[in-house]
Input
Amino acid sequence: MSNNLNSNLFFKFQRDFSYEDRKQECTSVMLKHPFKIPVICELHPKDINYADHPPLGKCKYLVSESLTIAQFTQVIRNKIKLAPNIAIFILINGQMPNSSQTMNTLYYRYKNTDGFLYVMYCFENVFG
Output
């Protein structure tokens, strides 16, 4: 079932592109890649001024249905090249999903009406 609660988070991607453009892009991508999940991944607003990491280069990802949140977190971690003492957390709809959940499960539970799964990431210094 589609869930539109993510639209209240006002992702930058949602501000930059109209609903119609986002919906059309997602539909087109899903027709070309029917077994992939379209994900928008952005930094949580509380971490906007986090200076200890380079920004994530892009916000749009097309991931395997079978990818777990733990694996997706590692993908994001590798792209940012985080120091080992910084933990990264993934939030969907303001909640931290179980690390063993697949992107497919989360997609069908939390996808936005435009077709994208909106995900935020945030950081925590774990060793002091």
Summary: The beta strands are 36-43, 60-64, 86-91, 117-125. The chain has one domain: 5-125. Helices lie at 12-16, 19-32, 69-80, 103-110.
